[in-house]
Amino acid sequence: MESPEKFTNSKEVIAFLAETFPKCFSIEGEARPLKIGIFQDLATRLEEEERVSKTLLRSTLRHYTNSWRYLHSIKEGANRVDLDGVEGDAIEKEHADHAQQQLEESKAKAAEKRKAKLAQQPKRKDKRQFNRPKGEKSANSDHADAKRGTKPKNNRPNTTPPAKLTDSDLQQGTQVTVKLGKAPMPAVITEVAKDGVHVQLDSGMVVKVNADALRLARSKRS
User: At 65, is the pLDDT very low, low, confident or very high (cuts 50, 70, 90)?
Assistant: First the structure.
């Protein structure tokens, strides 16, 4: 009998934990504060589970408890839960304050990264003359084109298409842009898996996308 395929990233393990222990872990909505020492409980309960190693389990638990969604749940007086959802010790003020500090620092870092990326983007120069209607060219521009024997050109700035990622770029920590809506959003690669690439947006949310949806950030190319 073949061994089951092992999990390769934190997202797969979190989904597995939410399915196996639904009263303790979740992938959306409000998170529940976890019992102190729950890693050992997980290691014992999952001792026969071949798909997840203790190393990956530990890093997944750290990823889960550092998320903004989880840090929001650490409030003074709230009860921690075990793997079966049984409430235990109440969260002390010291732990709640520490979680709030982590949350504020994480959001501040995300804001600083977003500000730095915006500052690194080249500023577009407005080539239109003062009070000139949009799309209207100056007479001097048309005259120069006619003198050269060329057709008048529009004044759109030359832009270089974003570069696709190479195999060497597909690694943790690479700054990229990912198009989730109409405009590309800055992000950082956190994991590269067989079924996609996990990136963390400035908002703190982690999403999985195909490598084709990623482009190198300008700061990476410069």
Answer: very high
For 160-199, the pLDDT digits (tens) are: 666 777 877 778 788 888 877 777 888 888 888 777 888 7
Question: Which of 140, 169, 172 has the alpha carbon at shortest distance from 155?
Answer: 140
Among candidate residues 59, 100, 95, 103, the one with its CA nearest the CA of residue 79: 95
Place of tokens 């797969």: 12
Query: What is the spatial distance between Cα 101 and Cα 119, in angstroms, rounded to a whole number?
Result: 27
- Which DSSP letter does residue 44 get? H
Distances from the Cα of 126 to the Cαs of 131, 134, 168, 180, 210, in angstroms? 12, 11, 37, 29, 36
What is the C-alpha separation between 159 and 83, in angstroms, rounded?
53
Residues 6+ apart with CB under 8 A from 94: none
| Model confidence pTM above 0.70 | no
AA letter at 11? K
User: Which two structure tokens, joined as six digits, stand for 162?
Assistant: 């974003």
pLDDT tens per residue, range 95-138:
999 999 999 999 999 998 898 888 888 766 555 544 555 555 55
DSSP-assigned beta bridge partners for residue 198: 191, 208
C-alpha–C-alpha distance, residues 76 and 68, integer Å: 17
